[in-house]
Amino acid sequence: MAFDRHTLIGGALVGVIAIACIAGLLITGGPGEARKQKEDAARLTAVSETAVALACYHQAHGSIPADTAQVESEFADAASASRRVKGCASARFENDAVTGEPFHLRRDDTGTVTQICAEFATSKSIGGRVRYGSAMAIVPDLREARETPGEHCFALNLDADLD
Questions:
Q1: Which helix (H) or strand (E) holds 81?
Q2: What pTM does this model have?
Q3: Which long-range contacts (CB under 8 A, 24 or more apart) does 17-23 make?
């Protein structure tokens, strides 16, 4: 059976398209990797929101309690002292957007919260695609790239200007 020129060209074109699709999936990591990056972006946004809430609570009350449920309930009250701090009216205390668990807070020897930690699925940083507002003053290294997946802790400046 003889193939004409159009059949050969069509077959070659289908082959090139198939190879391009496979190469694209290999380079980008496919839909599973995209899902992990989207989850990490949501997690990072929740970290920034929680950092702002922690700074608001710290500036209203001083120390942050070991049981963060107190902080969370403080933000459930629209008239709370934490919400009356300048720049804190819309602050939200959030848990991990994927697991629903609270973020791990690290403390220094005096019990002062110094870091907020989250478990990330990828090593990539989402960079400038998300706006963090006053969170950048509280978590200066929020946009820095993570070198590996896993736990990543961000230093907190709870005395930062929230306005």
A1: helix 81-84
A2: 0.78
A3: none
